[in-house]
Specification:
It is built from no helices and 6 strands. By secondary structure, the chain is mainly β. The chain has one domain: Ribosomal protein S27 (N-terminal domain of TfIIb, Single Sheet). Strands 2-1-6 form a 3-stranded antiparallel sheet, with no helix packed on it. Strands 3-4-5 form a 3-stranded antiparallel sheet, with no helix packed on it. A hairpin with a 6-residue loop joins strand 1 and strand 2. It is elongated and about 50 Å long.
């Protein structure tokens, strides 16, 4: 009997360092994620996991 693998990716609640807006970001984003309010970069792709540029407030499952 084979086991079903669990995903290793998560969604993160990130606080923007520019305007303190909180936004949900995928931790393996393949594009630059910008803040919906001020346009600052929140995450940038780095091949696998994204580099999170804001403050991680919560890991969502």
């Amino acid at each position: 009997m084979s086991k079903v693998p669990f995903p290793t990716t998560k969604f993160l609640r990130v606080k923007c360092s520019g305007c303190n807006n909180e936004q949900i970001v995928f931790d393996s984003s393949k594009i630059v994620v910008k803040c919906n309010v001020c346009g600052s970069d929140l995450a940038e792709p780095k091949g696998g996991k994204a580099k999170i540029l804001g403050e991680i407030l919560e890991v969502l499952s």
